[in-house]
Design brief:
The protein is of the alpha/beta class. The chain has helices spanning 26-36, 55-58, 64-75, 92-111, 142-154, 170-176, 222-240, 266-283, 298-313, and strands at 5-8, 46-48, 80-81, 83-87, 117-120, 159-163, 182-189, 211-216, 244-249, 288-292. The protein has one domain (5-313): Arginase, Chain A (3-Layer(aba) Sandwich), CATH 3.40.800.20. It contains 9 helices and 10 strands. The protein has an 8-stranded parallel beta sheet with strand order 2-1-5-10-9-6-7-8, with helices on both faces. Residues 165-167, 250, 252, 293-294 line the site of zinc ion.
């Protein structure tokens, strides 16, 4: 038996109060956490808890003035920041630091060989957050910060970010589109929120060719989606030879999700996870860190996380 799969969670993630009837609710994490405890593999997971991320790491991706603005907006008791989508409560800044810290903790566990791979059951999500702007429920870009942290602390060169959330991760793409050391791949429903992620967005300057966007029409089911994943994305990913793989693991492309209209089942997440494990074994010493983004039907979310974790553990 090798090192275990890590699951990172903290009840403090529930303290980010997004208000009444907001889809990105504390109940999402509560439902998944309670569900996972009844799953047979739960005792085999390495359970981790986060610490708040130091600002020096958040500043690798975000403007210090923006970080300060998030802090002050929370302290003032504002109900949202930058747009009505991104709800706040006074604790939100601290909890957002804890979400980033969760990803950093998983990266430490994986690079220090305490875990083979790991998943962060975290919120608020991150992939829409820009350098100086919050967007679409996201305050700090958890996965983008994690990629930079892994490069700096563990001296690795190439990071692959796979974003299978149903929405395009505009913030992550913008962070890395000029940088050939990070390959950003997103498959997302299109046309749809946030409106970015055209197939012709392939990176800029030295980073040209290390962004891959695959717009997916509404109604697409597992078979066609996985075929695109395997035939269009995987060859480029193997050619890139990542030293480390991160997943922006939103599960809102599920057929039961209320926010979008793709038709995936849990099995798609299982299949993609298994493919990424093969790639990780090939070039990245098995290192994969995955972090929750979206997913808004509580039952579908719990079952999808289960399928993803089970595949990570196999
Ligand atoms: Zn999403």
């Amino acid at each position: 038996m090798g090192a275990p799969t890590a699951l990172l969670y903290d009840e403090r993630y529930l303290l980010h109060d997004s208000g009444i009837e907001h889809p990105e609710s504390p109940e999402r994490l509560q439902a998944v956490w309670e569900y996972l405890q009844r799953v047979n593999f739960f005792p085999s997971l390495l359970l981790l808890k986060p610490e708040p991320a130091p600002l020096e790491w958040i500043e690798l991706v975000h403007d210090p003035a923006y970080i300060q603005r998030v802090k002050e907006t929370c302290e003032k008791g504002a109900a949202y920041i930058d747009s009505l989508d991104t709800a706040l409560c006074p604790a939100s800044y601290e909890i957002a630091l804890l979400a980033v810290g969760g990803v950093l903790k998983l990266i430490d566990a994986v690079f220090q060989r305490k875990a083979r791979n790991g998943f962060g059951l975290i919120r608020p999500p991150g992939h829409h957050a820009e350098r100086d702007l919050s967007l679409g429920f996201c305050l700090f870009n958890n996965v983008a910060i994690g990629a930079r942290y892994a490069q700096k602390i563990y001296k690795i060169k190439k990071v692959l970010i796979v974003d299978w959330d149903v929405h395009h991760g505009n913030g992550t793409q913008h962070c890395f589109e000029g940088d050939p050391s990070v390959f950003y791949f997103s498959a997302h429903e299109y046309p749809y929120y946030p409106g970015t992620g055209h197939s012709w967005e392939k990176g800029t300057g030295d980073g040209y060719g290390t962004v891959l966007n695959i717009p997916i029409p509404g109604g697409t089911s597992d078979k066609a989606y996985l075929q695109t994943f395997r035939e269009t994305f995987l060859p480029l990913a193997y050619h890139f030879k990542p030293d480390f793989i991160m997943i922006s693991a939103g599960f809102d492309a599920h057929k039961d999700d209320p926010l979008a209209s793709l038709d995936l089942t849990e099995n798609a997440y299982r299949e993609m996870t298994l493919e990424l494990k093969k790639l990780a074994k090939d070039s990245a010493q098995e290192r994969i860190v995955s972090a929750l983004e979206g997913g808004y039907n509580l039952e579908a979310l719990a079952r999808s996380v289960e399928a993803h974790l089970r595949a990570l553990m196999e």
